[in-house]
Amino acid sequence: MESPVFEVRLGSIHSLPLPEEIVKPFLEKGHSRVRIAAYHEGNSISFHGALQGRGTGYFLMFGKQNQKALGVFPNDYFQLQFFEDTSKYGVDMPEEFDAVLESDPEARELFESLTDGRKRGLIYAILRYKSTQTRIDKSLILCENLKRGIRDPRALFRPF
Questions:
Q1: pLDDT single digits (tens) 75-127
Q2: Which residues, including other chains, have CB under 8 Å from residue 108's CB and lie 6 or more apart?
Q3: Does one domain contain both 51 and 116?
Q4: Could you tell me the CATH number of the domain that includes residue 38?
Q5: Which residues lie below 8 Å from residue 69, measured CB to CB, with a gap of 6+?
């Protein structure tokens, strides 16, 4: 499932108002999370996001990092296209974290017992690290802390 390419403009600092005719077909099929391609003046980015309702309209969060990567500023028009999100967690799993979870079934089971939003938050936290070795190290710390019963997100990445 995919939408046609459509034009948007930042509605506030971090959100994009979305046309109802684009959003409705996804929501009716149970897809509140989508994969998004954004295009502006020869630049393009791809990311995952949630279709959110506010009052009588719909919007998508579009943070500063995405704005900078795409090269857009307030009042710039640019294009989006939505695709069905077929990823397991609603975000791409870093290879390093997946490998650590594969090597530790107990940690995998504990990770899978978390809410979908908490899983995505932890995946995004691992994705912040650029170095492969740092991602592996943080993944190992996270798994050990999960097994130690730590559930506070602020403490999950502290060395034990």
A1: 889 999 999 988 888 888 999 999 999 999 999 999 999 998 899 999 999 99
A2: 101, 102
A3: no
A4: 2.40.30
A5: 43, 45
